[in-house]
Amino acid sequence: MLFSIVTQHWSAIATQANELGRRLHFLSHDNAFVSYHPHVFEQRTLFARFQMNLTKPPHVQFIAKPVFSVLGLLANLAPFATATQFLPGNISYVLSVDEGSQYVCLVASRSNDSSPLWEKRSYLNITIPVDMVRGARAHPAIVHRVSCLVEGIQDGRNDPFRLWQLQGRPAYPTTDQLAAMREMQLPSVLHAETRRTVQFGTLSKGIDISLSLRGPWIVSVRLCSADYAPPGRVHNVRVRTVFRNEIIVHWHISIGNKQQNRCIQTYEVWFKAAKLERVAGNGRKETGTPQGRWCHINAAKHTPFMFYQYARNIRSPAAGTQAACKE
């Protein structure tokens, strides 16, 4: 529903003949309160909030809801976009490009806002003419590389609310239950391609993508030229303790005239102990120099946004990666 509301407002702005669009300056989102059990996923918030009162000390756990991921996908739209286009079957999409046509982003959705989805499964075929992404020098003899990333949010697959219901709607989820919900809280990578070369002046077959999706769904397609502005440096890294053996990491990316972050496919989080402490036989703590290597702690997880929550000693699909990261 959020995608439909945002794109309707965008169409009002993009249509010159629309009186409302000429007066509309911004669209606000209500996230000024915290959710509570048993309505942690059903209230108008971007995160589901669990007040963990049975721990000592009590603490709070958050799970990102699909609405948060939808806003993240919409943030990838370029400055210049078309009005919202509508297709049969409750499908709508917005196509956007940057000023130099070195970046193209398509966001499409199939919703149940106006009518129910009697057929949940839908098959989406996308043909992307990669030569529409221009390099720094669009000359017939110039060959440049184009990357493509397709991310999606689907009913049942990226739906921690449904998993929480299957878990019995616990007021105080266990560490394993929280980890299982976080496996589903962010968009999934449906297609990725980084080595497609394009030569202008020649007939390009483009990129053909066939997707089998369970509705309602939202899909983001990003095309980036190798000449597009590279991302800036990571800065303002903050590590906060959530609870015992659990942390959340936040960071920022520098953005300027020659720096953009729209072509970042995922973020990698690495860890290496700064010092080691062990308890000697006499009970005294000894500090030594670590001999371990850098550990890629989110290697098994797609991390499209600028935060990552890590917990030790959990049994999840990504546990194999964490098992290899022993301190």
From TrEMBL:
The UniProt entry, under InterPro entries, shows: GH39_cat, Glycosyl_Hydrolase_39, Ig-like_fold
> This chain belongs to which protein, by name?
Glycosyl hydrolases family 39 N-terminal catalytic domain-containing protein
Record GO terms (molecular function): L-iduronidase activity
Tell me where in this chain the Glycosyl hydrolases family 39 N-terminal catalytic domain is found: 23-189
Checking SUPFAM superfamilies in the record gives: Glycosyl hydrolase domain (SSF51011)
